[in-house]
Prior knowledge:
Shape: globular
Number of helices: 10
Distance between the termini: 24 Å
Radius of gyration: 17 Å
Structural class: alpha/beta
Number of strands: 7
Helix content: 25-40%
Largest sheet: 7 strands, parallel
Strand content: 5-15%
Amino acid sequence: MSEQRPPQGQEPPGSTGDMQPKPADEMADYEGRSLLEGKRALITGGDSGIGRAVAVAFAKEGADVAIAYLDEHDDARDTAKLVEAAGRRCVTIPGDLSAEAACVHAVETTVAELGGLDLLVNNVAQQRPADSLTDVSTEEWEATFATNVHSYFWCTRAALEHLPDGAAIINTGSVNGLRGNKSLLAYATTKGAVHVFTQSLAQSLVERSIRVNCVAPGPVWTPLVAATMPPEKVSSFGEQVPLQRAAQPDEIAPSYVFLASERLSSYYTGQVLTPVGGETHPG
């Protein structure tokens, strides 16, 4: 069973430093094999949670990394230190990616600072639980789509000008986009859109050999959960899956390494990987 967690008392988007217990998100025991040597990556939502673990894993595999994030500057600095401790460069890019201009800025800054772009990880997300559809305002619905779907479109469109043939794009989906979630109506709908966006984009980029894939995790202990879930759900978060616990970000990041590495996943495009804790039919 997962350990009981106290009420977190956080406001969105949440901070790693205020989480109890702290997530495992530093890839401390991970050993790279130069799978991404010389690559340049942009990871949106890269300051914490899955994004942080992916940034560190990529660095340990030899990639320089840019992380785009909203305003969680302490988390971003901590992630940058972890990347730099692995011997790679880290560029931190604050900004609200629910706006197109911020997405374009993130891509252009990455290219300018790192000298190019080989890997794009669209990972930023927001969510807000609601008891019913009537409790979801139009503003909340549109804001969730702007962050969770539109930013993926805007970042990808800006990146395509710079990505070489043979590059890789990885989107973050969710088990909620595979089977729905009555308390996360807007979020689950956006994640379903991300899955179809992945499959459609993969088809459109196959002639350039740009592989487009998606990781759709089950419950993962991240600041987004701590800052948006009610206390009673936080305390037992993840217990509903067959493994009876939430994943740690460190357990999800290797899926991104797999999909980023041409050596490991050259025959994968348009796929949705589902590390969901034992659900055999999450759709």
